Amino acid sequence: MLKEDVSVLVKKGEMLPLMEEFYTIQGEGYYKGTAAYFIRVGGCDVGCHWCDVKESWNAGLHPPTHVNNIVENAAKYSDTIVVTGGEPLSWNMQPLTSGLKAKGLKTHIETSGAYKLTGEWDWICLSPKKLKKPTPEIYKKAHELKIIIYNRSDFDFAEEQATKVNKDCILYLQPEWSKREKMIPEIVEYVMKNPKWKVSLQTHKYLNIP
Record-annotated residues binding [4Fe-4S] cluster (predicted)? Predict the structure, then answer.
């Protein structure tokens, strides 16, 4: 296929820069402990300094892959599909989710919300970042709000973000992995004083799985 043709298909969302795909256990948030197939899409300009998948940022490092192939692979493993990144909403997610839905699969996304919401989603995990705030639309549709706690100022950011989501959105505070020993006691204390929040941990890291 010509490079120009690939570029057009990527722009349409019919091909995506696929970094990796794998079957594992969801480690975070409401669906933790659930078997799920993860699709990690390359490309992100939000630029969190503590990001644990910085190799996903440069979309050019990851091969454009047709969504039909991604869907076929996903359908072999699980009925719950988690699309993550990078920042998946950098791309048009409609072709991918249409294909997954046609197979009867449940579609979940993990996103900063910094770009227009595209695709059909059964579950939206919104994890806002200070450097590039979410769009107004996604606040209304998020099923869970996950704030990463790196230092104490992030509690203020969490509260500010919580005022913007819908009333049914589940609120999570999650320690940034490298700061977990310092921040977990503070998160526990905060949640006990502010029980609208729940604690989320990266349990897959404790289990030593992807």
Answer: 44, 48, 51
